[in-house]
Amino acid sequence: MGRTTRRGTYQMLWDCPSCGSSKLLGIDHRHCPHCGAAQEENLRYFPSKGDRVPTVFRGSTPDWECEHCGTPCAAADGFCMGCGAPRGDAASVHVRASLSAGESENGAQAKREWNARRQRARAERSAPQRHASWFQSLRDYLRYHRKGVSVVAIAMAILGLIWFLCTDKEVQMVVHDHSWARTIPVERYSTIQENDWCSRTPGGARVYSRQSEVHHYDEIPDGEDCRDIPESCSESCSNIDNGNGSFSEVCTQTCTPSRQECTTRYREEPVYADKCYYEIDHWIQVHAAKSAGQSRSPEPSWPDNPSVSECASERVGCERLGTRTGTYWVHFRSEEGGLHQCGFPQAEWAQIDPGDHWLGGVSRIGEELDCETLERVGATR
Q1: d(CA 310, CA 188)
Q2: pLDDT of 67-98, one tens digit each?
Q3: Is residue 43 located within the same domain as residue 143?
């Protein structure tokens, strides 16, 4: 549970709106010592630590403002100390929002806030059933939350920069060259050795060894590990306006009592299963015949069929030709001089001429071309 203490009570300050005298004391100077004007309690503000003037704690019941002469009077006063008028229905004065003990204000801030409150009050009186417009609310928020708005603006700028760097830039490119490659693989029906858990052994496998092995480990609770954590305390302090020309520095200390913290200790217990070692027959690629070229002319050609040991029936040692594959690349040169390449289907590849102009998205980091963004924009014959 938190413990709250009052570290000290000090006088608020105010600036005289009549003659401009600054840093007048909230309790001692109920009237300006230079021009005699009554204190404007709405202009009170929290001083810096260097400007603090101690005073006794008089409670936290706010003053009231005389409706006749405007002098702020103590809550216990039934008559105005300035002109002697009775309190009547006079309302309590405005109490400023609390500040962290390390923060302070000045007269200009207090004046801006007071003017804003008066503008809102006039708007409410002229249209009591309507809220302030969203524009006015935004303006007031920006006016009194400059620091927060600055942080948001910086965060948005950083996010904007990240977004900019992560998006592609549109680059104009010219077809620079072509290349192609074709492959005819040779596959051989072979016996290979594999292993897997016996529950997953494929059909056709010939198991030659079976043994129990660790399949996985289960974590089993095995007692607790405990450590003593000593008491720890933290303190936060705020300046609180008492509403009577003074404020108090109030500190709240929150302590976490010493305690013992325990975590469950686990041990790993192996779980066994049968693993099978087996032989199985598969078609596997053993070599391939390849052909390649650096342009469209002459046209791409397949390599000569490699020799294979074909069999009438499927048995170990038999060979066959695998599926033919061809790849076809177009090479681009960007207007900045960068080189890129993309693969195309052969029919489309054959219709792309050197000198053709294309647009494509290139990453700002790494300068990689996104082939999906390519778009032909013209050709040079």
Answers
A1: 9
A2: 888 788 888 888 988 888 898 888 888 899 99
A3: no
Question: Given pLDDT bands bounded at 50, 70 and 90, which one contains residue 141?
Answer: low
Residues 93 and 31 in one domain: yes
Q: What is the pLDDT of residues 28-61, one digit of tens each?
A: 999 999 999 999 989 999 999 999 999 999 888 8
Measured distance CA(119)–CA(132) in Å, rounded: 10
Task: Note whether 123 and 142 are same-domain residues.
Answer: no
Looking at the structure, do residues 126 and 141 belong to the same domain, yes or no? Answer: no
| Beta strands in 3-65, from DSSP E residues, in sequence order | 3-11, 13-14, 24-25, 64-65
For residue 30, is it within any domain?
A: yes
Q: Are residues 50 and 142 in the same domain?
A: no
Residue with structure tokens 């400007």?
51
**Residue span of the structural domain in which 156 resides:** 136-164
Same domain, 62 and 146: no
Domain count, the chain: 2
Check whether residue 126 and residue 140 sit in a common domain.
Answer: no
Asked whether residue 88 falls in the same domain as residue 156, the answer is no
DSSP E strand boundaries for the chain: 3-11, 13-14, 24-25, 64-65, 72-73, 99-100, 168-197, 206-229, 232-241, 246-256, 259-293, 319-321, 325-334, 339-343, 357-363, 369-378
CA 4 to each of CA 9, 58, 74, 258: distance values in angstroms, whole numbers, following the listed order: 14, 18, 26, 20
For the beta carbon of residue 361, count every other beta carbon within 10 angstroms.
17
Buried b (16+ CB within 10 A) or exposed e, 266-275: eeeeeeeeeb
H-type alpha helices, 186-275: none
Calculated CA dihedral for residues 139, 142, 145, 150, nearest 10 degrees: 180
